Amino acid sequence: MSVYLLRRLIQALGVVLAMSVIVFIGVFAIGDPVEILISPDADQMERERAIAALGLDLPLWQQYAIFLGKAVQGDLGRSFVFNEPALQLILQRMPATLELAFAATFGAILIGLPLGLYAGLKPNSVGSKAIMAGSILGFSLPTFWVGLMLIMVFAVQLGWLPSTGRGETVEILGTRWSFLTADGLSHLLMPALNLALFKISLVIRLTRAGVRETMLMDYVKFARAKGLSPFRVTFVHVFKNILIPVVTVTGLEFGSTIAFSVVTESIFAWPGMGKLIIDSINVLDRPVIVAYLMIVVMMFITINLVVDLMYSVLDPRVRLESK
Amino acid sequence: MSAVVGQGTPVVKDPGAKDKVETPFRRFASEFMESRLALGGLVVISIIILLAILAPFISPQDPYDLAVLDIMDGRMEPGSLSGDGSITYWLGTDDQGRDMLSGILYGLRISLTVGAGSAFIACMVGASLGLAAAYAGGRTDSIIMRIVDLQLSFPSILVALMILAFLGKSITNVVIAIVVVEWAYYARTVRGTALVERRREYIEAAECLALPRYRILFRHLLPNCLPPLIVIGTMQVARAIALEATLSFLGLGVPITEPSLGLLIANGYEYMLSGKYWISFYPGIALLVTIVAINLVGDQLRDVLNPRLQK
Amino acid sequence: MRDSIRMAAAAAVSAAAMAGALGASPAAAQQVLNMGVGSPVTSLDPHYHQLSPNNAVSDMIFDKLVGTDAAARNIPGLATEWRAVGPTTWEFKLRPGVKFHNGNDFTAEDVVFTIQRLPNVPNSPSSYAAYARPIVRMEIVDPLTIRFHTAAPYPLMPMDMTNVRILDATTHANAATEDFNAGRVAIGTGPWRVLSHRSGDRIEFERNPNFWGEAPAFQRVNYRMVTNDATRTASLLSGDLDFIDQVPTSDLARLRRDQNMRLSETVGLRLIFLGLDHLRAENENSPFITDHEGKPLGRNPLRDVRVRRALSMAIDRKAIAERVMEGAATPSGQFLPPGTFSHVPDVQAPAYNPDMARRLLAEAGYPNGFRITLAGPNDRYINDSRIIQAVGQMWTRIGVRTAVEAQTWSTFVGRAGRQEFSSFLIGWGSNPDGSHPLRNILATVSRERGWGASNRGRFSNAEVDSLLTQALVELDEPKREQLLIRAQRIAAEQVAVIPLHIQTNIWAMRRGLTHTPRVDELTRAQDVRPAAQ
């Protein structure tokens, strides 16, 4: 087990390294940050000064070497735009995004699982068909469009919910969370729903597909034949089996929720890292882009590891290999 | 899709095909036809594909030709007559004076190409790698799955931005960008299922028979991994189309003079508040109908193709 | 960061207590102004990053020696008067009795400290150093009088000083950009004090009760960054925001109809224009120009002034201003709008004349036109990608078949700077002084003189250069204006660039507020007041 973990850790390191190289080259290929950041009336001297100040006058490999040297000491560079450590900038904004992603993921499971279960157990009922039809809406409409519609309906027309921003926050352990206040919750509701929409559909469909399959399995038939209550059959035998794909996908989706919260965050002016990364990409703020991606990669690797570990718990047939 | 039809499914009794010679395709077709909804979906998709192919012949206007557009006709309401009286804009016009009906017909072509094309390529790449990872295990598995990790952690927007910066803006490049973003999903999903499947008796049996590896992979393992793959696949077509729309919304999608449905929606989005709904609404409807139809067919395909879901 | 929050909380409590103690009217108690701005503020350090949103916020916290009014004319700021006391010496008389937010007195020492700090802000991606460069020596005559000595006559000194926010020599002696961003030392003499700052999200201000100028109208200001255009408008409509800037043109019609909304607008100083490839010689190929079969032409048609004139005449600027910009633009033939210093009175927006354009093309040897690609950003200027499509339509109609290539600013600007395009759309926000666009865009590129840094088309004209050289050392304002007018007239005749329109700056607010619209696009809380009942 520990050998297995250790090896995953080493692999993770390799992934992070590979990624930082790709990002360095990628950002370099896209454009020149100084051209974007500099005031339009700066003359050539000022431009050269800015290029030197940001360390962009060195050859790319040298810039990368400097970055690596500092990264080893835990310094991922300073943002070109904010002149603050990139890591600190991202960590400051992480709680907002995590909150949003958690809310969206839990929302998706809370809504999707029961609906999917129902649709799977009674595949031919009108309710199931409505659920399935509704779930298609969830991933066919572009997020940005749904986001604006939500704002139009619930904030502008009905006035039930605040349109944008994060609302009141409470400070716990040095970070601010908004889900603990009524005002914060009301601000959280729409962006979380917007972000969850795709996932709700996904969970519904995966659950339904799983349930339909599992219900036909011999062991389920057997359990029924044994005279177990339908409740027990559903929630012990079936449920355990369908959890694998649902766990995989929700786990995966949690990571991508964080990575892809970009659109939702910018529409709802949610001050998370998604908004930071899109702003940083727009101005090619390389230190922030690199640091952000490194953090996200770490997160993904952790999530994948957890998913793999959960596999082995949920399904004893899957063994973690340590050879 | 038809390439995989009939493979690996055990022969079962089919009440619908009593008096004909039962071929795998017939069996599949008759099973498919059982759902009227799916049949309807298939019809709708066929019509949509036909419309997309015939777009140049049935559109009132070539929406990609700047010479025939006139900004003086911009944002006209549905049913308006163009400034020179030559055509009626049944679905209105967008900000450039582009006939929305023509725009939608042409947009369908692009969205379908982007959606289906990228989903198909991503599926091929992802499923093969996922299978290989699960079956081979060990180092191969580790390498592939770490690449998947790497891939999944890149925000699609950044990937797209880089690719489009390298290659320039074009429909092909958008497809490439989406494939690069999406293949990892297939790989991850297929691997997850295949990990379970490869422990099953039928694989062991096949291995005992000393069948070649590729045969075990593609004829035994793959068909049994299909159900989740089709679920993901049909959703990813939709997702690819939506992702393309999002990229367009962020200014990274297809070229602005060759709008896809997504770009039409993104363009019209800004006019929603001012009540010029048609610029965004009709392409939205077209997108919705397309995706619903694809999914109806996909759902039925999944049920029919699922070896474990036989009645 | 945490400190700033605690500080904010404490300040909020004390503000509330103060309001209570003074027995403020009920209306004053809820005097919070919620503003939504479209561009993020990147730093509270007034000398770190030259960027309009940063300048706007700096203007709320700090003051400059020379201020600018809504029309961008110089007005007294921390200096009450200024004059050139010799050919190379400027003298500024400082305002007495001004205090920083923390109670420190403002004196000439602070000015010296500030000018010295400008070139020494570490890591600055776009510094204010250029404003310190002409000053070779500073002389404190008395605590309220300072002299700047320059190497050569320098007429632009007062204008330069409108960009330099004054810091406190004691408070900011070792202050780093981070200290400003955290709100610890965001201390100036301006009308607003910073309560808290969450970068990329919001800045909270409270009124500076000891401000030397006109007292601000609100107790508190919530300055929020809402970058998505549609949601910004939606937040105003839903009442979550009281005031927004950068109103998208697509929402104008709706907001004008709405009884509960008010708009505030003025013609700005930002010209949208098309840059043309002057770099390739007459017998060279321009990268994005071919004949109708896609083969290279073997020459650069854009070097022929008749072709440039034809392309300019083919554009129906009125249609673009009315249809694409929905009225939020004024067609123009030059960089500066009427009424500003050195506006050229006899240069009008070129009239739309497609027949004449075709004739000119034929005269130049292109009776059937050619093919060209017009590039432009899609996320930088108002409706940028729509404008290039509209221009593409119009050019195509005179036989110049135009492909349109829109891309994000981050990719576009680098390529434009490397002269990769044949024609491209770009914008320029001018100072109200012809020397500004002339020096940056129309002058021949020269590193030594610092000219033509944004001359992405590489236009070059000896006469323009010589007129500009004279104007840059001319201290007599009427003479200087004439020189600048002559230079700009030549550039217009030569079609150095194809000017399209000057943008209108638009803000929107709920009923009950008024706003003084600024030509410089800055969104500042002191310009917003409750409307007279």
Features:
heterotrimer; B: 311 residues; mainly alpha; MetI-like fold; two-stranded antiparallel sheet; elongated; disordered N terminus; C: 533 residues; 12-stranded mixed beta sheet; 4-stranded antiparallel beta sheet; 23% strand
Describe this structure in words.
The complex is a heterotrimer of chains A (323), B (311) and C (533). Chain A is an all-alpha fold. Chain A is 75% helix and 2% strand. Chain A has helices spanning 2-30, 33-37, 44-53, 60-72, 86-121, 126-140, 143-157, 182-215, 218-225, 230-260, 262-267, 273-282, 286-314, and strands spanning 170-172, 175-177. Chain A is globular. Chain B is mostly helical and 311 residues long. Chain B has a single domain (34-59, 87-309), classed as MetI-like (MetI-like fold). A two-stranded antiparallel ribbon of chain B has the order 1-2. Chain B starts with 23 loop residues before the first helix and ends in a 6-residue tail after the last helix. Mean pLDDT of chain B is 80; it is low at 1-18. Chain C has helices spanning 2-21, 26-29, 52-61, 108-117, 157-161, 177-181, 229-238, 252-257, 305-313, 317-324, 354-363, 384-397, 409-417, 435-442, 462-471, 477-493; strands at 32-37, 66-68, 74-76, 79-86, 89-94, 135-142, 145-150, 192-198, 202-207, 220-225, 243-244, 261-276, 289-290, 329-331, 371-377, 401-407, 423-429, 498-510, 513-515, 528-530. In chain C, helix 9 packs antiparallel against helix 11 (354-363), helix 14 (435-442) runs antiparallel to helix 15 (462-471) and helix 15 packs antiparallel against helix 16. With 533 residues, chain C is an alpha+beta fold. The model of chain C is unreliable at 1-29 (pLDDT under 50). In chain C, strands 1, 8, 9, 10, 11, 12, 13, 14, 15, 16, 17 and 18 form a twelve-stranded mixed β-sheet that branches. The longest helix of chain C is centred in the N-terminal third of the chain and has 20 residues, at 2-21. Chain B binds chain C through residues 66-67, 69-72, 74, 95-96, 161, 164-165, 169, 251-252, 255-257, 269-276, and chain C through 229-230, 233-234, 237, 248, 250-254, 319-320, 323-324, 378-379, 385-386, 389-390, 392-393, 396-397, 401-408, 410-411. Chain C: Belongs to the bacterial solute-binding protein 5 family.
